[in-house]
């Protein structure tokens, strides 16, 4: 009773929060539009800015990797693109439209977030796939198998006697790290986002599993503009553009080869942190 009371109070507090601003705005398809981050600064509080004058762009379909020391501002940049925060200066545009002009729903529905340390909810594989989608429970099995296949997850799901209805998590089967990641990738395929935000796992899988996950991700990124917080050299080498962020500023933009030649800290980083 005591525990439930505490939790309920907290839930009611959240339900009582006013709606986020920016719910209304332009509804528009953002496929094939470049993203421009234009002199963006941001501070969490009155104190020192955490992001200062960051400018970069991502052309449709490009992969842009954020790299740099801890506390540099990579996650904060993700938060700004996802509109969890608003820049204090500058703006982020999709095509010619500042993203703040779009309705929040329209923007968020077209952005996919894949964390490779993806947690599964208690429930079935099916529920884990459609989680968060309106009328998700009405998505036909055929479509769910299709996205599972694209994520190379169909085989192990089919191997469970209950297939899509297999319970996972505490009460059900324990999925391996690689299986969880592929379900997270299948989940992203189901949403078909135009922009992909990817937070790369720091812990690595065994090399066979890693290979399959990598293949699934490559397929997911195909044709989508992707921002990745990268921890792996293999990802970075494939990036169209690497953005080195330190202390809230961009100190280098280029391909791996370019930065290796021109950016001392990047070279050190690539040798030590990423290798
Ligand atoms: N919610 C927050 N409120 C106040 N300050 C924050 C908040 N989140 C991050 N910061 C500060 O902003 C700065 C940038 O943090 P951020 O999380 O963006 O770095 P990062 O590059 O993602 O680091 P890491 O590689 O460790 O994940 C840090 O100084 C951090 O302490
Ligand atoms: Mg971070």
Description:
The relative contact order is 0.16. Helix 5 (141-150) crosses helix 7 (177-191), helix 7 packs parallel to helix 8 and helix 10 packs across helix 11. This protein has a six-stranded mixed β-sheet, sandwiched between helices. It is built from eleven helices and twelve strands. With 275 residues, it is α/β, with parallel strands linked by helices. It has a domain at 113-192: Rossmann fold. It is globular, with a radius of gyration of 20 Å. It has helices spanning 2-15, 74-81, 104-109, 125-130, 141-150, 154-159, 177-191, 207-221, 233-238, 256-262, 264-274; strands at 35-42, 51-58, 63-67, 89-94, 97-98, 111-115, 123-124, 167-168, 195-199, 225-229, 241-246, 249-254. It starts with a helix and ends with a helix. The protein binds adenosine-5'-triphosphate and magnesium ion. Residues 44, 50, 70-76 line the site of adenosine-5'-triphosphate.
Summarize this structure as a short list of keywords or feature phrases.
275 residues; alpha/beta; Rossmann fold; four-stranded antiparallel sheet; 12 strands; binds adenosine-5'-triphosphate; binds magnesium ion
Furnish the topology, listing elements before pairings.
Elements: H1 2-15, E1 35-42, E2 51-58, E3 63-67, H2 74-81, E4 89-94, E5 97-98, H3 104-109, E6 111-115, E7 123-124, H4 125-130, H5 141-150, H6 154-159, E8 167-168, H7 177-191, E9 195-199, H8 207-221, E10 225-229, H9 233-238, E11 241-246, E12 249-254, H10 256-262, H11 264-274
Parallel strand pairs: 3-10, 3-11, 6-9, 9-10
Antiparallel strand pairs: 1-2, 1-4, 4-5, 7-8, 11-12
Helix pairs in contact: 5-7, 7-8, 10-11
The structure holds adenosine-5'-triphosphate and magnesium ion (MG).
């Amino acid at each position: 009773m005591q525990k439930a009371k505490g939790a309920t109070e907290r839930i009611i507090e959240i339900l009582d929060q006013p709606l986020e601003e920016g719910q209304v705005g332009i509804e528009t398809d953002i496929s094939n539009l470049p993203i421009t981050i234009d002199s963006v600064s941001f501070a969490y509080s009155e104190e020192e800015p955490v992001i200062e004058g960051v400018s970069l762009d991502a052309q449709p379909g490009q992969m842009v990797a954020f790299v740099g020391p801890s506390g540099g501002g990579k996650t904060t940049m993700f938060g700004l693109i996802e509109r969890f925060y608003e820049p204090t200066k500058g703006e982020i545009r999709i095509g010619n439209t500042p993203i703040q002009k779009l309705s929040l729903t329209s923007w968020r529905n077209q952005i996919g977030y894949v964390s490779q340390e993806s947690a599964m909810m208690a429930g079935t594989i099916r529920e884990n796939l459609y989680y968060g989608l309106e009328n998700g429970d009405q998505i036909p099995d055929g479509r769910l198998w299709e996205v599972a296949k694209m994520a190379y997850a169909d085989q192990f799901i089919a191997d469970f006697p209950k297939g899509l209805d297999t319970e996972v998590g505490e009460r059900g089967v324990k999925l391996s790290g690689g299986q969880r990641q592929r379900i997270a990738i299948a989940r992203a395929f189901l949403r078909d986002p135009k922009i992909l935000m990817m937070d790369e796992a720091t812990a690595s899988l065994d090399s066979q599993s890693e290979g399959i996950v990598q293949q699934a991700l490559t397929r997911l990124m195909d044709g989508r503009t992707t921002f990745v917080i990268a921890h792996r050299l293999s990802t970075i080498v494939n990036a169209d553009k690497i953005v080195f962020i330190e202390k809230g500023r961009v100190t280098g933009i280029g391909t791996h080869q370019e930065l290796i030649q021109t950016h001392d800290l990047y070279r050190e980083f690539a040798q030590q942190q990423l290798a």
